[in-house]
Design a protein that fits this description.
The complex is a heterodimer of chains A (255) and B (276). Chain A has two domains: 38 residues; 197 residues, MetI-like fold. In chain A, 82% of the residues lie in helices and 0% in strands. The radius of gyration of chain A is 23 Å and the shape is globular. Chain B has 276 residues and is α/β, with parallel strands linked by helices. In chain B, the strands form two sheets. A six-stranded mixed β-sheet of chain B has the order 6-7-8-3-9-10, sandwiched between helices. Classes of the chains: A mainly alpha (255), B alpha/beta (276). Chains A and B meet through helix 7 and helix 8 of A and strand 6 and helix 2 of B.
Chain lengths: 255, 276
């Protein structure tokens, strides 16, 4: 019989392959630019980008834009969390409302909501408020849908047995419905957070006054490509960091 | 055993859906039954005969289409957590709470004070043999241990009446046997009135003071058999001539009803949501 693969060993093996892949990608980028086959104006090599990135970090010029992006994210996510959970909970109280709204929300969520950005810019201006609105709109859907799924599909036997033991409405909510729904809602929050971040960075590159996305477009338009890539790298790192934090919180919240 | 009646069921009928509906099912028809104080009554019958429905109606979890149920001398209109506790078929423990938290929550819902809850929870877990598993989550336990925990939760409520809806139904034969023996020992020490729904003839004969045999749907009680054997029952009761005789008697009573029930469901008469 073949011995079973050690999961830990497997994990390190796949980590190594992932690292190799990144190294290969950066080497490819380096040789492509070093060979002179692509214009250095359009695609600077890894060296200059790293130099610019260091400069951005040392001067601290990113701080105000980062704060703006994070503020937009925080406000949008707070609005969608509160409204998504409240509305989702209210819908979940009635099987009829679930039947009406579950497919409706799923349908609206499937359309690219970023298309509303021009409208939001007209309504709320180029500044932060249009990003609050767009981020909140987009992240509302996964949060509301998961709240409905969480509260609306609690196993009946839990409710019946709590009722037989005399649980009050509050106790039913606090000790049965909430813990049953919680993991599903947390997943919705994580999904909502991810799409809010995407929408906010994306909309900053389309129409904005400031923020990380705005800086990327600003340097692209002034043909300062190395600095643009430095900002892209920075934004990607921030996004990866935030998503990792949220995923960790999700796993913790569920256990 | 005194002749006092703990639960009085009078002319209870129940149907799911409306007449003419595709999903219309008449589950129970004009059922009357007296459960005596302190006895263990088993309800046995073919699938879909309404025995679990009757149990839910007795416990106030369901309102009958017609008829009445009285506990003591009070009519049952809803759950009576001070008088009646339930043990369900499976997985009625909250998976997000540990075993002891589950037991604690039941008493908290019922309105027991904190110090008293802690004491009773420990006692009841010890009584079902789960003293060392208090801090485990239900998902970490075997099916048999989960049902022991559910039993501890029900016992901790210290109700006079215990309604058990196929509590060992999802367990394998051997676990079932051991749990049955332990239950018999445990219950011989209390004066609880118990109604126990089961599919298993052996389980019914082993545990019950009386067995109510249901007819096929729409269910009503066909016959009640007395089993005059003191509790706690010993394992060698199972191999006795008496056990076999009563079991065969039950089998004969049930056989035709089961045939009827099977042909009902073969004709498409079985409907989800109208579980036994």
């Amino acid at each position: 019989m073949r011995p079973r693969a050690d999961p830990d060993k497997n994990r390190w093996a796949s980590r190594a392959v992932q690292a190799l892949f990144l190294i290969a990608l950066i080497s490819f980028w380096y040789f492509l630019t070093a060979s002179g086959r692509v214009s250095k104006i359009l695609l600077p090599g890894p060296g200059p980008v790293l130099y610019e990135l260091t400069d951005v970090l040392e001067t601290g010029e990113f701080v105000s834009d980062l704060l703006i992006t994070l503020t937009e994210l925080a406000v949008a996510f707070t609005i969608s969390t509160v409204s998504g959970i409240v509305i989702g909970y209210l819908i979940s109280r009635s099987p009829y409302l679930i039947k009406v709204f579950e497919p409706l929300l799923a349908g609206v969520y499937a359309i690219p909501i970023i298309l509303f950005l021009p409208l939001y810019v007209l309504l709320f201006g180029l500044g932060m408020p249009s990003k609050f609105a767009l981020g909140a709109t987009i992240s509302f859907f996964p949060i509301a849908m998961n709240t409905i799924a969480g509260f609306g599909h609690v196993d009946k036997v839990f409710i019946t047995s709590a009722r037989s033991m005399g649980a009050s409405n509050f106790q039913m909510f606090r000790y049965v419905l909430l813990p049953a729904a919680f993991p599903v809602i947390v997943t919705g929050l994580r999904m909502g957070f991810t799409v809010a971040l995407l929408a906010i960075l994306g909309s900053e590159t389309i129409a904005s006054l400031a923020g990380l996305g705005h800086q990327i477009v600003h340097f692209s338009e002034s043909m300062d490509m190395a600095r643009m890539f430095a900002y892209i790298t920075f934004a990607v790192a921030i996004a990866a960091f935030l998503n990792a934090v949220v995923s960790t919180l999700e796993t913790k919240g569920k256990s | 055993m005194t002749g006092e009646v703990a639960v009085r069921v009078r002319g209870v009928s129940h149907q799911f859906g409306e007449q003419g509906d595709a999903r219309f099912v008449r589950a129970l028809l004009d059922t009357s039954l007296d459960i005596r104080r302190g006895e263990l009554m088993c309800l046995i019958g073919p699938s879909g005969c309404g025995k679990s429905t009757l149990l839910s109606i007795m416990g106030g979890l369901m309102e009958p289409s017609s008829g009445t149920v009285e506990v003591g001398s009070q009519p049952v209109r809803g759950p009576m957590p001070k008088e009646i506790a339930f043990v369900f078929q499976e997985n009625a423990l909250f998976p997000w709470s540990t075993v002891i938290e589950n037991v604690d929550l039941g008493m908290m819902f019922q309105g027991v004070g904190k110090a008293e809850r802690e004491k009773r929870a420990r006692q009841c877990l010890a009584a079902v043999g789960l003293k060392d598993f208090a801090d485990y989550y239900p998902g970490q336990l075997s099916g048999g241990m989960r049902q022991r925990a559910a039993l501890a939760r029900a016992l901790s409520l210290e109700t006079g009446i215990l309604l058990m809806d196929e509590p060992f139904g999802a367990l394998d034969e051997q676990t079932r046997m051991v749990l049955g023996e332990d239950l018999s020992v445990l219950l011989s020490r209390t004066d609880k009135t118990i109604v126990f729904v089961t599919h298993s003839l052996g389980e019914a004969v082993f545990l019950a003071d009386r067995v109510a045999v249901f007819s096929a749907r729409p269910g009503s009680i066909k016959e009640i058999i007395e089993i005059d054997e003191p509790h706690p029952r010993k394992p060698d009761f199972i191999t006795s001539e008496k056990f076999t005789r009563i079991r065969n008697q039950l089998y004969a009573l049930l056989h035709d009803e089961i045939r009827k029930a099977v042909s009902q469901s073969a004709m498409g008469g079985d409907v989800a949501g109208a579980k036994s």
